[in-house]
């Protein structure tokens, strides 16, 4: 890891309130207090990650300097705002995203897997038939949960599925941007589990041809439907965003094992497309799609006491347990 590398996190302070911190190796440094102790100018107050993202261009260089000083042990005052990561409770890295966009059918291996499971012909590359990225919106505060959280399975579903995803966190207002410049509007990446109640995809007996057949709220927006974390990895600290390994285990059994190389629409294409529809704002999150290995393809779904672990190369691990 480079000397100025860090991870941007939200943690529970001594009074239980959410505070923004940077994780440097095995320590967490309170951002607002750390910048003051180090004598860096800042547009405070900076108690939340959202407040930092609103000033991302200004603050990103200061955060890198704070990470460098932390590793060097510079300044007795700065040392006083450091704590072991193991001694604090991590909260969702963004509390709470303004809007959460979720990409559907955006991994080549997942699309192929679902086509086989449904006995459908193989689908062409959407680029070849003129299709654009496709997203739905997920509720924010009701759905987002931290790593290490125990989430009750929704009472209305018996077929809750896992979906490991890499998520983009927007760091700058973004409207009508091209693909070539789109990544410049991202602050970093995090991990999400886009949980789905597969038995509530459709509203029976609404006719198949009806535009009102699909039930996106019941399927995607129950309490705890988007575990997120453990932190945000700045984009410049990712070695190769186009080839990031992504894996998911249920009770130590490997279920998903893929790479961002299998994305259909790239991170940049998704940011660019969404920006043609509305203005993306600091703190918005784009979940970029899930690879093969979901429970729906094998007829297996989450049960009480199941433990799910997601690992993404360069970011870290997201842990969740489920209860009745």
Q: Mind telling me the CATH superfamily name of the largest domain?
A: Fumarylacetoacetase-like, C-terminal domain
The CATH class of the largest domain is: Alpha Beta
Number of domain units: 2
> pLDDT average, as an integer?
94
Strand order of the largest sheet: 7-6-17-11-12-14-8
Task: Characterise the protein shown here.
With 324 residues, the chain is α+β, with helices and mostly antiparallel strands. The chain folds into 2 domains: 85 residues, no CATH class; 224 residues, Fumarylacetoacetate hydrolase, domain 2 (Alpha-Beta Complex), CATH 3.90.850. The chain is 19% helix and 29% strand. It contains 8 helices and 19 strands. The strands form 4 sheets. Strands 7-6-17-11-12-14-8 form a 7-stranded mixed β-sheet. β18 and β19 form a beta hairpin. The N and C termini lie far apart (40 Å).
Quick overview of this protein structure:
The protein has 2 domains: 7-91, no CATH class; 100-323, Fumarylacetoacetase-like, C-terminal domain (Fumarylacetoacetate hydrolase, domain 2). Helices cover 19% and strands 29% of the residues. It has 8 helices and 19 strands.
Give the tags.
globular; five-stranded antiparallel sheet; alpha+beta; single chain; 324 residues; 2 domains; seven-stranded mixed sheet; Fumarylacetoacetate hydrolase, domain 2; 8 helices
Write the layout of secondary structure elements.
Layout: E1 7-12, E2 18-24, E3 27-30, H1 31-38, H2 49-53, H3 56-72, H4 76-79, E4 82-84, E5 90-91, E6 100-103, H5 108-117, E7 135-138, E8 144-145, E9 149-152, E10 160-161, E11 164-170, H6 179-182, E12 186-193, E13 196-197, H7 216-220, E14 226-234, E15 245-250, E16 253-259, H8 267-275, E17 285-287, E18 307-312, E19 316-323
Parallel strand pairs: 6-17, 8-14, 9-19
Antiparallel strand pairs: 1-2, 1-5, 2-3, 3-4, 6-7, 10-13, 11-12, 11-17, 12-14, 15-16, 15-18, 18-19
Helix pairs in contact: 1-3
